[in-house]
Structure formats: C-alpha cells, structure tokens
Amino acid sequence: MTTPINRCWVFWGLALVAVSLDLGTKAWVESALLPGHGRTFLSGIVRIYHLPEVNRGAFFSLGSRWGPNANLVFASISFLVILVILLIHLRPTIRQSAYLSAALGCIFGGALGNLHDRIRYGGVRDFLQLFLPLGQDSHVPLTAVFNLADTALLLGAAMLLLASWREPCPKGEAAAR
Length: 177
What we know:
By secondary structure, the chain is α+β, with helices and mostly antiparallel strands. It has one domain. Helix content is 56%, strand content 11%. It has a four-stranded antiparallel sheet with strand order 1-2-3-4, with no helix packed on it. Strand 1 (38-41) and strand 2 form a beta hairpin. The longest helix has 25 residues, at 8-32. The relative contact order is 0.18.
C-alpha cells in the first residue's frame, strides 16, 4: 500500500500566484495610468482602466448601492470563503488531489486579493474589461470591469464544477442511487 501524497504545495503555490498577480497588476495599473484613463490592447479586445473609484459591490457592481455597507458585507463574505476553503483543504482526501488543491488554491488566492482591497481601500480595485470587436472601431463589452482576483475565483469555481462531473462517486453513494 502506498502512502498518499499531500498536495498542499499546489494549494499554497496557486494561492500565492493568484494573490501576487492580482495585487501586482493592480499596483501596476495605479502607477502606470492616471485615474480615469486607460489603454487598449489586442485591437481593442482588452482594455485596462485606472478607475477613479473602487467597487464596493461585487460582480457587475452588485450591491454597490448599499454604500459602505456593501464593502462590509462582501469583505465578510470573502473572509468566510477563505475560512471555509481552508477547512475544506484540511480534509485528507482533498489534500491528496492536485486538481482539487489547485481549484481551492485559486479561490483562496482570489478571495484573499479582493479581501486585501476591501480592508485597505474600502472596495475592490477593478481595471480590466474584455470587448467583442464588431468591425471598424466598433466594440461591444463582453464583461464588466474586473480584476485578476475575480479571474482566479472564476477559474477555481469552474474547476470545482468540472471536478463534480469528472470525479467518480464514492462506493456508498453510487449504491444509494
């Protein structure tokens, strides 16, 4: 019988990469662009903005009308997500899976990056938006303005969704079906 391999290094490695890329790109945008200005890349498909205000809400500015309370609510949610992810990753069967450790590491790093912003800046610093080119100088927004922490959260959630389809059911659950 072989000893199970602990994949904590995958979890912590991806969490560190996610939070470092997130905070690093946000710092770069703030140093390279004046507030209210931006740059376009890849023929207008990618735009980077230095927004003059932080996003106190969530995706698509959900809850931003709640004012400062929105930031408190979403900071609390981020903190709870971080705690839950840590507790889930303590399970030996989870730590043995490189795939699940990677997914949870992405979510942990993304939540930590956004929580940092909420505590330090009173909201999340969003700066990136994707567009669909329709022709000569015509582009339609594909996304709201977001950041790399949001990308890590979405990637981790997508990986967990895929894992729920690809992982076989434990023997006891398969018999119950």
